[in-house]
Amino acid sequence: MKSITIKKLYQLHSWVGLVTGILLFIIAFSGAVAVFALPELKIWANEELRAPIKHNPQGFEQLINEYSQKVDPVYLEEIQIRLPATRTSQTSRVIFEGHIQTPEGKEKHEGIVYEFHPETLKELSETDMEVFFNQDKLDMASFLAHFHADLHLGRPVGLILTGLLGLTLMVSIVTGLFVHRKILAQLFTFRIRKTFSLMLNDGHKIMSVWAVLFHSTIAFTGAFLGLATVILVPAAAYVGFNGDQDKLLETFTAVKPAIISHVQQPTQLSNIIEQSLESRPDLNFRNVTIMGYGDKNALVYINGTGGEHLGGETLIYNGATAEYIKTQANFGRLDGVAGKILDAMFPLHYGNFGGVLVKILWSVLGMITALLPITGLMLWIERGLNSQQPNHSRRTYQNFNKLLIGSCGGIVLATAALFPAQLILNTVMHGLDHTKSIFIIFFSVWIVSLLIPFVINYKTAIKLIFKLIAGLLIIVMPMDAILTSSHLFNVLETQHYVSVSVDLVLFVLGLLMLFGYKKLFSLPTEALPIDEDINQQSEQIEKES
What we know:
Keywords: Membrane, Transmembrane, Transmembrane helix. The protein is α+β, with helices and mostly antiparallel strands. It has helices at 3-34, 37-45, 57-68, 129-134, 140-150, 157-179, 196-210, 212-240, 245-252, 269-279, 338-350, 355-386, 394-428, 435-455, 458-484, 491-494, 497-520, 532-544; strands at 78-82, 92-101, 107-116, 123-128, 284-291, 299-305, 313-318, 324-329.
């Protein structure tokens, strides 16, 4: 490849990293945590979900029978049930929904949302469907999941931004592989006992190559998930469905409306749920959708995850007879490989297709993806500070370094702060909406952390943020034991296996951070060439061009 081309790729690689490096860290780090948002962190954040919840088919059938008499009959066209046994939602939710034709000939979705206690099925709230979905009630688990998806900027801005960041990560991967052509020769070089600069240089190369397949997968699926709903779906609807996005989704997704016969016949909901549990013990059933409740031609769709299909499976039944019809994936109505590819997008991005071990692997690799742009930026800063002919002033590099410390260290600190904050909120604001408090705590900690390196010495700021993160992680387990009486010594009695495991993991991570703190800040810090290969390569490019 010509040297002029390599030079352009090097410049592109550098500028993409400079412009998007911090945002890429924020997205990748939040994603590494969001892998456990459902159900692990959701269970931990809500005391009513900590103990296992059994399926209650009879209870839900009685519930639907009772409330179907209360709502407008038009709202029986579609009933959606969030089953509580998977513990992915703070409440068990039932939506009665009708598809109303407007004078313009379009279809409008109206309905009522009921929330019930996940175990007792006692009614907690009744809300208009439009109002319900316009008011976000978030605990720390949902907050982190939404933050990763759109940075809480909403649609379409947030999704477009995260989608574009996925594309920039793909650009960085491709250009990096071309620029560092000799990187394979240094695949096993990691001089951890040398200077911090050399460790940084070797780490950047090793992380980029060893996990390149994961980086590429996350970049592509992230770009797709971010851009699909705001660009690809509307575009496809405009081309093939006269702009009707609902019609597009209805055509290609698993749930299809029933053909109403107007002949009343009870829907065998409990039999269908029981039959599904017996026939498919490998699936964790989350949602039930009833199309045409109480009609002879009613259809029941019960969706579960954990089977051989990455995106989950939907079992379809005749509602009146409880007769099994077929099983299909979420996009099973798409022919060929297209449906399988679409079904794989979300699981491949979040790693929720192979149990907790796959989630752990995805989280660790996600942290590596987060460190990749940061190590690149740190190398750029140190090269600039040590260069005899830097491209920018020394103060510019120093200020960028402070911004890097405050923004990236700050988001880690803010995330760690949400754990003790959630325990306190559960105690002092029990049963109330925590959304506003979660927002204030997270962004306040982040903003303060962002300012700290500009107020005190940046090395002192690093040490302070490091210690605070470790301390916050360590205190979660004793706080949980004091405030909720849930701890390792009574876990067999309470069966709070998931929440106690989260406490233990946070405690161990805190101890590891303290250990890493001692090791990290004991490394020699004298200024040395941090990336001789890149420096020599860029100089060679300049000469040849």
